[in-house]
Specification:
48% of the residues lie in helices and 16% in strands. It is an alpha/beta fold. The chain folds into three domains: 1-58 and 75-103, no CATH class; 59-74 and 109-451 and 787-793, Rossmann fold, CATH 3.40.50.2000; 455-680 and 744-779, Glycogen Phosphorylase B (Rossmann fold), CATH 3.40.50.2000. The structure holds ligand 26Q.
Length: 804
């Protein structure tokens, strides 16, 4: 719908009156929000239908991105922006006395993901629609998203995320009962000969109704709308009477009740495996059902369908696809296998061995016995095929079933034609270490796709003031074509522009300072350095390294209150998995250190420590534009890529970084002079693993600074951390400091001194900031998804970019 203000206001008032029988002046923000969403949806639904029709008409190859997590956050602004309605709605609302920001704030975050992996899936969905690719998401509609975090006495407490129960609910979904499928789980299976085929007979199996809820994913100014399909588990009507007890019904509905919080220690949970099979089976069945509606035969399905496995969580796609081709379509094993491998592709997101998914054989047998049979047959044929050709030990190391377990990463690599890492260093490590044996077997399958971020959300929406001054220099075309941001470099000596950059940053910091004051009661100085570390709490991400430096600074200031440092506000946002005890202890220590420092007037407010509760996508959108420093300090080789590093540089923050994940590529882009690098390299880390020459206790004994800082954890300097302080102290000393925190400490201090020194030269700082903004366009997810499309999925773009 082409719109002007008058027409929009008229339609809005009419819709409000139809829906609620009220005027604007009587409406609550929820009612206004709901009405706006309803208008937005009815407008894009025309394009949504057309997108599908075009796909069908052109017999377009379809890609299905399977991910157990999608983390879109709020969708209203992003939909408005992509439809070209954003400014119009703000202006129109202003005219009729509505505060748009307050209305937008009503929307609950769609938090169906833990962090990086789920957010990446959401940025990819935005880019895929914006670039006009026929790619749809397939996931789970959790009734409860990632837990809400509160701090009580400095401890993390988790509360359920009842996002569907809020007044606003999920305005974006459409329940499609007519597209429901039945998922079969549990029981026993027998194969019997029938008409020349082996037919599986299921006994005592549980039938589950999988109902899809579709969310439209609106492309940027191109009339292209893709689908994110999220499945919900229900009791099939036909067998309703078989579930007489509440408990029996709950067992079914539980499958899609709650998102598992990322937790490497929590492996082997039965319900998690059920979730995985549930959304895999529902998705694959509906893909094949749809394909068959328009194709006579299925033996060339890989020419029209691609399935992407986002981490190993959906790796059972390989076996489920085989199951349907064999049991229902009666293809030969060889033909079915050929089509399966051609259809599947897989992204690995982790190098931490303990996070690689395995399942006990009896458990898989209990959840879906036919799938275990098929996995066993794949394993058997894999071994038989290599026997005599390859070293026996290599075969043992790479087979899918071994040591009583099913190795999901092995299933994903063997059952697909492409395995990619998410940053160059990560892909190199996959080849040389984690998946080394597979690289020997299938070198041609391995490729790198460095992660990216949606510039629309992380710049245009999160930082409108920055976007506006970029417009003044470059015009508006960069909004369509991210690469043009590079041209900003030519303003490197334009003092006026550099000053404008500084003013925008100051405004963003003032806004964040206000939020901090409201939420924590602590006043922070917007002219101080805002030093930001936002990411899940994990030992390898080393929030602890940051904390130790803060303690050091505090001790220095206590000794010498006149110490000449640039004032800093340390800002943390991080959730810990509920059962990750160590991570929770770190949260407690940060909170207690913050309380001590923020209330100590003797240090004259030179440093403040702010740990904001409940870090989520919406909070990220408020913190990132206000950051001066981006902390990307994981132990080299541990962070697969990182994506907050990209979002922060895009918003002009300078990065303090180890040579890990995508930091390496950020450094290549901006040059060593425009980033603060420190710490061990991955080679040095690996050497320590080999020669066992790291003894962290020596650092405690021989380095006076480290000694003093670690003692503060256990000698009462920081109050209320008797247990946690000792736990952390021990991990860094007697337990030999798994993540080399003490080893990197001195170098970290050195680089942070350099940060201070650089900040004193504001012109230089702004110049560095500008280069970071300009070069961030290399990490646009628009570019990343194009590479997935052409190099992995072999699909083409079907939409023209519009010029709205
Ligand atoms: C596992 C077992 C049981 C329950 C949950 C899980 C689980 C859940 C989520 C395991 C892992 C995750 C998420 C992993 C993740 O977010 N990885 C990050 O992916 C980003 C996108 O590629 C990278 O940038 C990060 O470096 C990587 O840590």
């Amino acid at each position: 719908m082409e719109l002007d203000k008058t027409l929009f206001i008229e339609s809005f008032k009419k819709r409000l009156s139809q829906k609620y029988a009220i005027d604007v002046s009587d409406a609550t923000n929820s009612e206004l929000y709901d009405t706006l969403c309803s208008l937005v949806k009815s407008s894009y639904s025309v394009s949504w239908r057309q997108t599908w029709k075009d796909y069908l008409k052109e017999n377009e190859k379809q890609v299905y991105y399977f991910s157990i997590e999608f983390l879109p956050g709020k969708l209203l602004k992003s939909n408005l922006l992509n439809m070209g309605w954003y400014q119009l709605v703000i202006d129109s609302f202003k005219e009729i006395g509505i505060d748009f920001e307050q209305v937008a704030a009503v929307e609950p975050d769609m938090a169906l993901g833990n962090g990086g992996l789920g957010r990446l899936a959401a940025d990819f969905m935005d880019s895929l629609a914006s670039e006009g690719y026929p790619v749809n998401g397939n996931g789970i509609r959790y009734r409860y998203g990632l837990f809400k975090q509160r701090f009580v006495n400095g401890y993390q407490v988790e509360l359920p995320d009842e996002w569907l129960k809020t007044a606003a609910g999920n305005a974006w979904e459409i329940r499609r009962a007519s597209k429901a499928v039945t998922v079969t789980m549990g029981g026993h299976v027998e194969l019997v000969q029938k008409n020349g085929y082996l037919e599986p007979i299921y006994k005592d199996a549980t039938l589950i109704k999988a109902v899809p809820y579709d969310v439209g994913i609106v492309g940027y100014h191109n009339q292209h709308v893709n689908t994110l399909r999220l499945w919900s588990a229900e009791i099939p009507e036909a067998v309703e009477s078989c579930y007489p007890t509440i408990e029996a019904r709950r067992q079914i509905e539980d499958i899609t009740t709650v998102l598992y919080p990322d937790d490497s220690n929590e492996a082997g949970r039965r319900l998690r495996l059920k979730q995985e099979y549930f959304f895999v089976s529902a998705g694959v069945q509906s893909i094949i059902r749809h394909y068959k509606k328009y194709h006579e035969t299925i033996d060339q399905i890989s020419q029209r369908v691609a399935i992407h496995i986002n981490d190993t969580h959906p790796a059972m796609c390989v076996a489920e696809f085989m199951r349907i081709l064999l049991d229902e379509e009666h293809l030969s094993w060889e033909k079915a296998w050929e089509q399966t491998v051609k259809t599947m592709s897989y992204t690995n997101h982790t190098i931490m061995a303990e996070a690689l998914e395995t399942w006990d054989i009896p458990l898989l047998n209990e959840i879906q016995p036919r799938i275990l049979q098929i996995v066993a047959e794949i394993d058997h044929r894999f071994v038989a095929h290599l026997a005599g050709k390859m070293d026996g030990q290599l075969i043992e190391r790479t087979r899918i079933i071994s040591g009583g377990k099913v190795h999901m990463a092995h299933l994903a690599v063997i059952g697909s034609h492409s395995t990619n890492g998410v940053a160059q260093l990560h892909t190199d490590l996959l080849k040389s270490d984690v998946l080394r044996d597979f690289y020997t077997l299938y070198p041609e399958r391995f490729n790198n796709k460095t992660n990216g971020i949606a510039l629309r959300r992380w710049l245009q929406l999160a930082n409108p003031e920055l976007a506006a001054i970029i417009d003044q220099k470059l015009g508006r075309n960069w909004r369509q074509n991210a690469c043009q941001l590079q041209q900003l470099q030519q303003y490197n000596t334009d003092e006026q522009f550099l000053k404008k950059l500084a003013v925008v940053k100051l405004h963003n910091k003032q806004r964040l300072a206000k939020l901090i004051e409201e939420r924590t009661g602590v006043t922070v100085d917007p002219t101080a350095i805002f030093d930001v570390q936002i990411k899940r709490l994990h030992a390898y991400k080393r929030q602890l390294l940051n904390l130790l430096r803060i303690i050091k600074l505090y001790l220095d200031l206590k000794e010498n209150p006149d110490l000449a440092i640039v004032p800093r506000v340390f800002i943390f946002g991080a959730k810990a998995a509920p059962s990750y005890h160590y991570a929770k202890s770190i949260i407690k220590c940060i909170n207690e250190t913050a309380a001590l420092i923020n209330h100590d007037s003797t240090i004259q407010g030179k440093i403040k420590v702010i740990f904001l509760e409940n870090y989520d996508v919406s909070l990220a959108e408020q913190i990132i534009p206000a950051a001066d420093i981006s902390e990307q300090i994981s132990t080299a080789s541990k962070e697969a890529s990182g994506t907050s590093n990209m979002k922060l540089m895009l918003n002009g923050a300078l990065t303090v970084a180890t040579l890990d994940g995508a930091n390496v590529e950020i450094k290549e882009q901006v040059g060593a002079d425009n980033i603060f690098m420190f710490g061990l390299t991955k080679q040095e880390v690996y050497r320590y693993y080999q020669d066992h020459s790291y003894h962290s206790l020596d650092y405690y004994h021989h380095n006076l600074v480290i000694h003093r800082v670690l003692d503060a954890l256990i000698d009462g300097t920081i109050p209320n951390i008797a247990a946690e302080g000792h736990e952390i102290f021990d991990s860094l000393t007697y337990l030999n400091d798994d993540y080399f925190v003490l080893r990197d400490f001195e170098d970290y201090l050195r680089i942070q001194d350099q940060v201070d020194e650089t900040y004193r030269d504001q012109k230089k700082w702004q110049q560095m900031s500008l280069i970071n903004i300009a070069k961030a366009c290399h990490f646009s997810s628009d570019i990343t998804v194009k590479k997935y499309a052409s190099e992995i999925w072999q699909v083409r773009s079907v939409a023209q970019k519009g010029g709205v």
